[in-house]
Design brief:
alpha+beta; 442 residues; five-stranded mixed sheet; 13 helices
């Protein structure tokens, strides 16, 4: 649908959501409270939290609370002094509304807030994004509003959820649509080359710099610079990026003169940047600069009602003209809706393309239970069809399935933090990146 066919805001459909309220019972901010206007509520000492506390024992971004159908989900951002329910320190878990939390020297009661009406986008497509679920149509509505502005946007979501499509929609629906859209994947560039990729370099600036290179900031002038996986940006380069964003000028590596820059920055990450701020691995002032607006992308497993629509889109994009049920019958669609989808929409697209190539589904999702997070997953492989194959081919198929399950486990365990997964799995980070790309998990 065209962006111009949208309904007036007053006539947009909406949905009622359950919200949260937080009341400080003990501590320096006793008596302070906040009622959220969404399902989430953040508490911490830094500006930008929904409930900002002055308690010095509370971390900058201490905890995020989310109202769900099952209760209140707690996500501690790696705070220094922890989030406690009674005597139990909680990293992530579900609690009932009305629970009392202890954060440092403060005690906060989390209860039910008043229901709120939130606006939904009036169509099932925005740019290249598609979705009929309430969560996606809410996201599309926020994307459309953010696109009309020039503010920096941070897109947060797991790998494969379509963060670049959102960045492109922000560009194409905004005032800079006629300008360039330039992407820099901060996680795919060697750390010693990131500065050159962002800012460019002069001839002779370093060994191998045999000519001048124009960086992404210059190439994006008048348009949008998309910094994908910004959480992978080396700490030593974060002040340079902050300076360029604040002063709107920079110098090429090895350069002597300032170059003016006019770009809108959209960033994306699958990492918990607030936890990175708490740990000192990501600058707080840079976080403020890039996260003026934050868009959170729901994982595919949380919006199974979008599966059929996405399959139809991918089949259409591939030139398929037949009925969807010729390839995906209802029993299979039901299993797809129940699948965990560690690779999210990217994994579904790969399944559709493989199904078109082979004329039948390439795997049965019912055979792949979601990762348990406790290391107890069993890898079930039917060996009999592999026995007639040459040893190298049979071994390769088994290894491929093992790698996919192993990578999914570590991504789930670390919340998609690739650097942390590499450390905890004792793997070389570049090798892990290579494996993730081979399995379309990044």
């Amino acid at each position: 649908m065209s962006h111009k066919q949208t309904l007036p805001y007053d006539d947009r459909p909406s949905v009622s959501i359950e919200t949260l309220r937080a009341d400080v019972l003990e501590g320096p901010d006793k008596g302070k409270s906040h009622e959220a206007d969404a399902e989430t509520l953040t508490i911490g000492s830094a500006e930008g939290n929904d409930l900002q506390l002055s308690d010095p024992t509370v971390s900058r971004y201490h905890v995020e609370l989310e109202r769900t159908s099952e209760g209140v989900r707690i996500r501690d951002h790696g705070s220094t002094n922890g989030t406690f329910v009674g005597q139990v320190r909680v990293g992530e878990g579900l609690v009932p509304p009305g629970v009392t939390l202890r954060l440092g020297k403060s005690t906060v009661r989390v209860g039910e807030g008043a229901p709120k009406a939130v606006e939904l986008y009036d169509f099932e497509a925005l740019g290249e994004l598609v979705g009929r679920s309430a969560s996606m149509r809410r996201l599309m509505s926020r994307i459309e509003k953010a696109a009309r502005t020039e503010v920096s946007v941070l897109i947060v979501g797991e790998s494969g959820t379509g963060k670049e499509l959102i960045a492109r929609a922000l560009h194409e629906l905004g005032p800079r649509a006629s300008g360039p859209f330039v992407t820099v994947d901060c996680g795919a560039i060697a750390p010693n080359l990131v500065a050159s990729e962002l800012f460019g370099h002069e001839k002779g600036a370093f060994t191998g710099a045999d000519r001048q290179h124009v960086g992404a900031f210059e190439r994006a002038s008048g348009g949008t610079l998309f910094l994908d996986e910004i959480g992978e940006l080396p700490p030593e380069l974060q002040p340079n990026l902050l300076g360029a964003l604040e002063r709107r000028r920079f110098r090429r590596v090895g350069g002597q003169k300032d170059i003016a820059v006019d770009v809108r920055v959209v960033a994306a990450t699958n990492r918990d940047l607030r936890a990175e701020v708490n740990d000192g691995r990501f600058r707080l002032d840079l976080y403020y600069r890039i996260a003026v607006v934050t868009l959170r992308v729901p994982p595919l497993r949380e919006r199974p009602e979008d599966i059929d629509l996405l399959i139809e889109r991918f089949l259409h994009d591939s030139g398929y003209q037949g009925p969807i049920h010729d390839l995906f019958d209802e029993p299979l669609l039901a299993r797809l809706r129940a699948h965990y989808w560690p690779g999210n929409v990217r994994e579904l697209r790969n399944l559709v393309e493989a199904t078109l190539a082979m004329g039948e589904p390439s795997f049965d999702p019912s055979e792949e239970p979601p990762p348990s997070g406790d290391g107890s997953d069993e890898l079930s492989i039917n060996v009999r069809p592999l026995l007639p194959l040459p040893y190298k081919d049979a071994r390769g198929k088994v290894l491929f399935e093992f790698e996919k399950r192993y990578l999914g486990y570590w991504l789930e365990r670390t919340g998609g933090n690739v650097a942390k997964a590499a450390r905890e799995a004792k793997m070389d980070r570049s090798h892990l990146f290579h494996m993730l790309r081979r399995h379309d998990l990044r």
